[in-house]
Specification:
There is one protein chain. By secondary structure, this protein is mostly helical. It is built from six helices and two strands; from the N terminus they run H-H-E-E-H-H-H-H. It has a two-stranded antiparallel sheet with strand order 1-2. Strand 1 and strand 2 form a beta hairpin. The relative contact order is 0.09.
Length: 126
């Protein structure tokens, strides 16, 4: 069992985000102590790791909620969950290709300036 602060630390989410995810039903069934304080389980942390991945790769909250809702409905929703993740993976791959093209352009521009001014380390030392 993990206190909210520990769950936040381990997941990389803020306490406010954890509360928000619980409020909108993304994270459900978070336990409570007899005093009413939230406690997180390893299962909750597993969900948070998945949510971190989905969020960091740009999945909208509505789709994250849909995925969580399907998972709670049971194994018969596995094909739909798989399709949702595959669609997201395709979008992530497209974004990665775009970023690679933009990165290559950026590196090309830096190489150009190195021919004009010299390497950045040499310029910084003078």
């Amino acid at each position: 069992m993990y206190a909210p602060s520990e769950a936040a630390r381990r997941s990389g989410f803020s306490l406010d985000t954890l509360r928000y995810y619980e409020k909108i039903g993304l994270l459900s069934g978070v336990g409570r102590t007899s005093g009413g304080r939230r406690v997180f389980t390893d299962d909750d942390l597993g969900w948070l790791v998945l949510f971190r991945c989905l969020r960091d790769t740009g999945m909208p909250i509505a789709q994250m909620c849909r995925y969580a809702e399907l998972a709670r409905e049971g194994e018969h929703t596995a094909p739909e969950r798989q399709a949702l993740l595959e669609e997201h993976a395709t979008r992530v791959e497209e974004q990665m290709r775009l970023l690679q093209r933009q990165y290559d352009h950026l590196r090309e521009k830096i190489r150009y300036y190195e021919t004009v001014t010299g390497p950045a380390e040499a310029v910084a030392r003078t």
